[in-house]
Amino acid sequence: MVQFTFIQPDGTRNTVYATPGMSVMETAQHNGIGGIIAECGGSMACATCHAYFDADTIAKIGASEGNEHEMLDFAATPRSEHSRLSCQVEVSEVLEGAEITIPDSQV
Amino acid sequence: MTENPQTRAAAGCPMEQASETFRPFEHQGMYEFLASVRGDVPIFFAPEIDYWVVTRRADIEKIMPDADRFSAELATQPVFPWPDSVGRYLEGRNFSNEAVQVACDPPRHTRIKKSAAQFLNIRQFMSYEDAIRDLVRGYIERMRGQEEIDLVEALTYELPAQVVFLLLGVTDFDPKKIKAWGDLRLHMIWGDPNEHDLDTAARDLADFWDYTVDLVEARKVSPQDDYPSKLLALRDGDDAVLTENEIKSLIFGLLIAGHETTTNAAGNLLLELLRRPNQWQAIVDDPSRAKNAVEEGLRYVTSVVAWRRQTKEPVTVSGIDLPKGAKVLLSLASANRDPAKFDEPEMFDIRRKNAQEHMAFGRGLHHCAGAPLARLELRIILEELTTAFPEMALVDDQSINFTRTLSFRGPNQILVRPCG
Fold first, then answer.
1. Domain map of chain B by residue range?
2. Which residue of A64, B111, B334, B414 pairs with B34 in a disulfide if CB–CB is 3.0 to 4.6 A?
3. Is B312 an 8 Å CB contact of chain A?
């Protein structure tokens, strides 16, 4: 299991134990984390699972690319260099201790 | 251990009472009914339609994306099978519409969605924002100077059809004709039509299909910057990508999915706002509130109140065993007012923080591809109406009526005084 923390827009922190192989989006939904909506279920069609990853983690997992990179232009809360679609980030050891901030709005 | 529904029924339990009380086609009183049963009855059988009705969000969230155990193939089949005469007539008219999106399962769904999403996506939709705003302003100009209007007739009935025409590159068609076709199709599939209705509707359905075929054939000869041309280009003559009939079926689907639900969603939202003048005023004061008001409207009065699935294997839902082939009706209306998700769910509040977590557009691989477009249209309607008519008010003592269908809810008429 890998342990990391979701941070809500109001600062509330929820630390979860995640299963490698699942996506961060699936982990959020499995743990009842609000604000990661993922209406399309991970098919990169909606950009409603946008999240900001801390700088160290982004350096390890890499920035968004391809379709994910384009879709982030249309996220409801403006993207930053720390933005990823959480459906496209797979849980692995590199996420240990990561801090994942949920944006104000997803739609 | 699971419970036997027959045993529960014999005991006169709440589940049996829900079965007897539920009126699947009647929207008046639907939310009160759902609130009264959700706590004790997560699932019950509706004999009038032969469906199991699921009421709790937690169950619906699991079932809807679960394509392994629940098929979507019946999602657009008639609730009551059509008589053979309808099938024969449609066959004679070369009506070859096939399930391509909302009513097909993987891997077919995956292949077709891959192409459709090249055009039906938020990037493409946002490119229409200025054009949609111009359309809305055109309708608003025609409302000016009138003492009393029906908002449905004056705006929300036609506008979404006009937006579909933008996507299809159609500039010379009467939106009322498309709307009439759409209304008939909904009645045939999700209503409880009589045989005479069906014979009449079948002719119109075939005309609707012929129009779609002609449109696609025209784009083959002369491609434009629109949805059918994009699909034809992606196909590039390869049936393994998309067949021509699948393209025609996708266009046929858009001609209904692209406007009926948005017409209803706009009507539902405007009605609830105008019933609460302080919330209308809050948007007048700060138009940036329109965005969350749209989400609360989609939550509180979703235009798609229920959606269908069929079990592919025996499953257990909230303790009730369902056999393979059981038909399941997922109450999105109930999921959107489930207190397990929303505080004070029966209250309409445009400032609700988690309004966006509604299920109005479904969940999972069949999530509505047009959701960003619907949101865009609804937001623009609100922004423009509150700016043009800040004093708009409902006409007193009007009765609000809804068409009888299993899945779709929207007011047929909203009488307002534009200037209060």
1. 5-417
2. B334
3. no
Q: Are the CB atoms for A37 and A106 separated by under 8 Å?
A: yes
Chain B residues near residue A107 by CB distance under 8 angstroms: 291, 295, 356, 375
Amino acid type, B310: Q
Is A99 within 8 Å of A8 (Cβ atoms)?
Answer: no
Q: Say if the ipTM goes beyond 0.85.
A: no
- A107 and B CB contact within 8 Å: yes
Query: What superfamily in CATH does domain B5-417 come from?
Result: Cytochrome P450 (1.10.630.10)
Q: What's the 3-state SS for B140-180?
A: HHHHCCCCCEEHHHHHHCCHHHHHHHHHHCCCCCCHHHHHH
Q: What backbone torsions phi and psi does residue B181 show, to the nearest 5 degrees?
A: -60, -45
Q: Are B143 and B149 in contact (CB under 8 A)?
A: yes
Of B365, B370, B373, B371, which is closest to residue B113 (Cα–Cα)? B365
From A53, A92, A57, A90, select the one nearest A72 (Cα to Cα): A53
Q: What is the CA radius of gyration of chain A?
A: 12
What domains sit in chain A, N to C, each tagged with a CATH number? 2-101 (3.10.20.30)
How far is Cα B201 from Cα B85, in angstroms, rounded to an integer?
Answer: 12
Closest to B362 in 3D by CA, of B331, B325, B318: B331
* Residue B395 CA: distances (Å) to CA of B385, B414, B415, B416: 16, 8, 6, 5
CB contact under 8 A, A105 and B291: yes
Chain B residues with CB under 8 Å of A77 CB are: none
Q: How many residues does chain A have?
A: 107
Nearest to B365 among A43, A70, A107 (CB): A43
pLDDT digits (tens, 9 = 90+) for B56-110: 999 999 999 899 999 999 998 999 988 898 999 999 999 999 999 888 888 999 8
Which of chain B's residues have a Cβ under 8 Å away from the Cβ of A48? 356
> What's the gap in Å between the CA of A47 and the closest CA on chain B?
9
Query: Measured between alpha carbons, how far is B316 from B18 in angstroms, rounded to an integer?
Result: 19
